[in-house]
Amino acid sequence: MIGFSFSPGGLLFPYHLGVIKSLTNTNHLTEENPIAGSSAGAIAVASHAANVTPEQALEGCIRISDACEEMGGARGRLLPLLEQELNALLPQDAHRVVNERSGLTGLAYKEVFPVQKNVLATRFDSREQLIEDVCNSSMFPFFSSPWPCVIRKGKKSNLNSKINDRDDDNAVWNALPRVVVDGYFTVPRERFGCPDLEELGVCDRTVTISVLPHDAIGLTASDGGPRDRISPVVRSNEEFTDLFRGAVSPSPRKFMVELFERGVADGEAWASNEVL
């Protein structure tokens, strides 16, 4: 079983959508394949698992980029725009659709308070929780919002229903607010934010998908080398600079559509060398 792990990537998110489209069309990505991602990768994974088409998600990304352009840039403005688009695009039963998917769907983020831990969310009690976890995964300090983190409310508990003192302690602990940051910070540097699916035992092999060239960003975690990697081929420093600029700055529709098509082509190229 092959798992697909998607990297962060800011506004280069359309590349992931193109790869998903091609892998789905070639039957390399089915309901059974585990998928996980951080930040832009989490957005792609969640939208796909919730049955939002790549084209619909692409239009959402273009709207976010256009809104950032009108407001003077992307820095500090992305998180509320992302939440707005998720509310517009995800079906009302999105959490149920994702939960019922036979393959694991994972959204990575890091909790830094009240306890520091890496989280891979795989079950969602509500549509609101699904949206919140996507936004948690996309909270890159001082870029997604003006702040270094996002603070989430703790879970309410009925202290009157406790069975013992440990239950009481757990209830108080769970009621504390949670401070979270981007899923990029959940894995070692050589994974560049790509969740480790093999560590979970849900697949025999993981293909890492990055919006930036693997070698350029030091994403070396793929055991199988090139056959376990999908990312753009960049032929000059100028081209890489343009690509990186697209990750952190608004881009016109033409750039976004071309990036999507590039993901489709790279996904098809990978699939052509894979025997089902």
UniProtKB/TrEMBL annotation:
- Keywords for this entry? Hydrolase, Lipid degradation, Lipid metabolism
Q: Where is this motif: GXSXG?
A: 37-41
Which sites are catalytic? S39, D169
Tell me which Gene Ontology terms the entry assigns under biological process: lipid homeostasis; triglyceride catabolic process
Among PROSITE patterns, the record links this protein to: PNPLA (PS51635)
Q: Which GO terms describe its molecular function?
A: triacylglycerol lipase activity
GO cellular component annotations, sorted alphabetically?
A: cytoplasm; lipid droplet; membrane
Q: Which residues form the PNPLA domain?
A: 4-182
- What's the protein name? PNPLA domain-containing protein
